[in-house]
TrEMBL record:
Belongs to the glutathione peroxidase family. Pfam families: GSHPx. The keyword Oxidoreductase applies. Residues 1-183 form the Thioredoxin domain. One of its GO terms (biological process) is cellular response to oxidative stress. This is Glutathione peroxidase. SUPFAM superfamilies: Thioredoxin-like. It comes from Paenibacillus rigui. The active site is at C36. One of its GO terms (molecular function) is peroxidase activity. It comes from the Bacteria. Keywords: Oxidoreductase, Peroxidase.
């Protein structure tokens, strides 16, 4: 059975890192962007990282420019932005694509392991995001594609995908799921 440990990614400096380096730890994988409506989520993500890192939880971010060109800079600029503007201490890796023909294999795996569950129509932000995608990139509404920046995947200690969180999901949902992972 495949796990995230079967994949290798690149740090912002180009160094190749096998994801088995995170083996035995709960992990949160996020596609990020520095010029996105959801960019302020870095504050909450860093807070959660600070809260859970001592318990072994790791976070890793992957800048992505596929959504409205919201990550136009270099790998180094993306990582520096997170550190300077949001005090991000968790690793920010190299820019990648998460959808389409050039999607990184890790994100193809994540999308298949944790399918898109639909938009929460009761959430105004989810409703607005769906309308924007319908207008600009309707192909992303189909299947399990990543819908926008700041989609998050929770991985258990065995490298299996546990849950997918959309950009409009409340950060408390991720926090509760992290608590459950630490208790298991």
């Amino acid at each position: 059975m495949a796990t995230i440990y079967d994949f290798t990614v690149r740090k912002s400096n180009g160094e190749r890192i096998p994801l088995y380096a995170f083996e035995g730890k709960p992990l949160v994988i996020i596609n990020t962007a520095s010029k996105c409506t959801y960019t302020p989520q870095f504050t909450d993500l860093q807070r959660l990282y600070d809260q859970y890192h001592a318990s072994g939880v790791e976070f890793i971010g992957f800048p992505c420019n596929q959504f409205g060109g919201q990550e136009p800079g270099s790998n180094e600029e993306a990582a520096a932005f997170c550190q300077i503007n949001y005090g991000v201490k968790f690793p920010i890796f190299s820019k990648i694509e998460v959808n389409g023909h050039d999607a990184h294999p890790l994100f193809d795996y994540l999308k298949n392991a944790a399918p898109f569950k639909g938009f929460d129509e009761a959430n105004i932000n989810a409703k607005l995001l769906k309308m924007m995608i319908t207008e600009k990139n309707p192909e992303w509404l189909l299947g399990n594609s990543i819908k926008w920046n700041f989609t998050k995947f929770l991985i258990d200690k065995q490298g299996q995908v546990v849950e997918r969180f959309e950009p409009t999901d409340e950060m408390d949902m991720l926090s509760r799921s992290l608590e459950a992972q630490l208790k298991s």
